[in-house]
Amino acid sequence: SPGSSFCAATTDRGSVSTDRPSQAPTSTTNLSSYALSLQPTLVPARGTFVDALISSNVVLYLSFQLLNNFILARPDQSLLFLPGSKHELFRMPQLSLLDKRLLMRFFQSILDSDQLVLREPVLSVSFLLLLHSYYILEIADELLSKYLCPLPYSITNPKLVSVIGALALLAQEEPSALPVVRRLKTLLREIGRQPSTMVSALPAALLLG
C-alpha cells in the first residue's frame, strides 16, 4: 500500500520483483521449456547455488548482472536511495553522523556472533538448528525497532530503522528483527568484506538474473 515502506532492488532498467516463482508448463509438447522463466530473480553473488550453475554449465544459458541501487519507498510516497557503500552511507543527509556510526556498529555485530545481543526467552527451535547456526538470536517475534532500541545498539531514529529494514529487502513497515538480521548477515557475507569495511558495495552481494 502507499502507506507502507518497502524496498525495491533496481537496475538501470527499473525495479524488479522476486516473489513469484517460475511455473512449470502445462503442455508436454516442449519439455525443455519447463526451466525457462522470464521473471527476474535475485540470487546471492556467492554460494552453492551459483557454484552449481557454473559446474553444470547451465550458466552458459543464463544472464546475470549486479544490482545498482537499493531504493526505499517511504509512506509520503517519496523515494530514498539507500547507501550501497560506506562512502554513500556517510554522504546521506537524511541521517546524522551518530546514526551512521550506530549503523556501522550494528553491521559489525551481525558478522561477529560474540557481539550479537542474546535475549530471553530462548527461541523455540531445535537443538540441531542452534548447533548449525553459530550465531544465536533470541528475537523470534520481536520487532526490529524494539530490538535495536536498547544497548548496545541504541538505535532509536525511526528513519534509521526503516533504512535497516529496507537494506534487508523486507517490505514490511514494521519488520521482525530475526529476518532482518538473517538477511543482512547473508548479504554482508556475500560481498566478502571484513567488518572494518562494512557496507562496501552492498548491492554487489546480489545478482539479477
From TrEMBL:
- One Gene Ontology term from the biological process aspect of the record: vesicle-mediated transport
**Which GO terms of the molecular function aspect are on file?**
GDP-dissociation inhibitor activity
For this protein, the record's Gene3D superfamilies field holds: Guanine Nucleotide Dissociation Inhibitor, domain 1
Q: Residue ranges of region Disordered?
A: 1-29
- GO cellular component annotations of the record: cytosol; nucleus; Rab-protein geranylgeranyltransferase complex
What protein family is recorded? Belongs to the Rab GDI family.
Query: Which PANTHER family has this protein been placed in?
Result: CHM, RAB ESCORT PROTEIN 1 (PTHR11787:SF4), RAB GDP-DISSOCIATION INHIBITOR (PTHR11787)
Protein name, as recorded? Uncharacterized protein
The organism named in the record is Puccinia sorghi
